Amino acid sequence: MKKIYLLLLTLCFSLQANDLDGKKVFETYCWGCHHQTAVAFGPPFTEIANKRTKEEIQAYIIEPKAMYKAFGYKRTVMTKLKLNDKEINAISDYILSYKGK
Prior knowledge:
Helices cover about 50% and strands about 0% of the residues. The chain has six helices and no strands. The termini are far apart.
């Protein structure tokens, strides 16, 4: 079921053009708890990018309370953000730009 959900998310996001700047989405919604390379309240993007696929990142953004156990977390404090598909795609691409850094 999880794989089908992630596959549908991937298909949905890949069909849409991404004309948003992921850094701006990050600064608007994520910066209070996450930083690019340093630990803040939440894990840094470098850590997330090296552990997760784009689909996993998007699924967690969309439904953190439904996904935290699947990721092996004991709890989640991440709030459910009201982002549209383009914003979710932009921020997930921005997070993945830190892979390997």
